[in-house]
Amino acid sequence: MSKQYETVIGLEVHVELATKTKIFCGCSTEFGGAPNSHTCPVCTGMPGSLPVLNKQVVQYAMAVGLATNCQINQYCKFDRKNYFYPDNPQNYQISQLYLPICHDGGIEIETEAGGKKTIGIHEIHMEEDAGKLIHDEWDDCSLVDYNRSGVPLIEIVSEPDMRSAEEVIAYLDKLRLIIQYLGASDCKLQEGSMRADVNLSVREAGAEKFGTRTEMKNLNSFKAIARAIEAEKNRQIDLIEEGKQVVQETRRWDDSNGYSYAMRSKEDAQDYRYFPEPDLVPIVISDEWLKETKENQPELRDEKMARYKEEYDIPEYDISIITNSKHMADIFEETVAICKNAKKVSNWLMVETMRLLKEHSMEPEDIRFSPENLAKLIGLVDAKAINGGVAKEVFEKIFTDDIDPEAYVEEHGLKSVNDEGALRSTIQTIIENNPKSVEDYKAGKKKAMGFLVGQTMKEMKGKADPGMVNQIVTEILDAM
Questions:
Q1: Same structural domain for residues 405 and 437?
Q2: Of 66, 67, 63, which Cα lies nearest the Cα of 55?
Q3: Given 234, 262, 288, which residue is the final one in a domain?
Q4: What does pTM read for this prediction?
Q5: 303 and 275 in one domain?
Q6: CATH of residue 462
Q7: What burial class does residue 265 get, using C-beta atoms within 10 Å of its C-beta: 0-12 exposed, 13-18 middle, 19+ buried?
Q8: Distance separating the N- and C-terminal Cα atoms of the chain
Q9: Three-state DSSP state, 93
Q10: pLDDT digit string (tens) for 225-236?
């Protein structure tokens, strides 16, 4: 009988914080600037330049720590992590090893296979990001962009509590939502503002001792993380089954080819020769500052979902989708506050908005229309000023250009024709011109009525109220 194995996984998650300036200087953190345009002597490691700590970084780190049930170290320090790499301008990184700002926390996840489970957080520490190496294959050289150098990071180090890719994704998704709801980062994996390194080992089921772990880097999507975990688990099991040793090392995941390869042997803390950062004083977080941060924590997703169930008459599935993006939840709440109809707002977000997001390959965070214009559109439909078909057409313009629907409807002559006399006269003419359809209707063929309604809508250029058209067509046919 073949042996059963268990996968043991811990994560190191790096999150770029949403400050306007870098952690130790006044340079912009904006993504996508021209190479080396957001730099100064401090973040390019010039001799004699001195770091000055950005207070907002400490504020965000504290907020994330509190939201993940961590203890806050009110006295913490920075340390130097020494290593040479071309994208690291000082040849050291300012980080925290001995006294990180947060420790001993955890968050609850839920998976289909395992139900509810708490994943421990060993620590959260603050540090600066390195620059970015760009490899030019044409000229066979590497170039360095220091725009990212000095961008503030928090590193969230989990306990090795995860046992499957499903648990890893659930943990990352929960972390992402907590941090987005706090406003501490946009957590866009594709832009590198949230990055996860996976530490993974396998052991025989029931064993207490951990196996030898590897660390996998270069994971920039949830799908890539899931694929990498599966591949690394199988690679390690194959080595053990063949009687070979798993080597502790850092591996790079190649998602397009579906395999990982060794980068370097895995370093331990002593290899970095950490020592206290001499250019920065310790951080002292007062009781008042900590209390104020606790009191100002926003409503997080779990609390929001519970409140929606109480306040709004919408399905739980709708609640889970809407609250899965803080931006969409904000749009929902602001629109409901204006038009006072949660169900209709939910329907527009769940059906038409989700359809258009998919068509345009966009995320909910990319929604640009205003709650005011969505509320106006709902008002136009409620007042029967426009019908459902026209409403969808107008919404597409709201989605792409955030147009004022009232002005757009007026300007393009899209208002519904609610004049019963004019409508009745048009329907009468259409019925007279289609005697075969009348015969079919009388013979019990209900599709004939659909044809007559369609002809009427076509004649009215889609601007008639379908309910009124159906009613009048039925009345006239039944009276014949």
A1: no
A2: 63
A3: 288
A4: 0.84
A5: no
A6: 1.10.10.410
A7: exposed
A8: 81
A9: strand
A10: 999 999 999 999
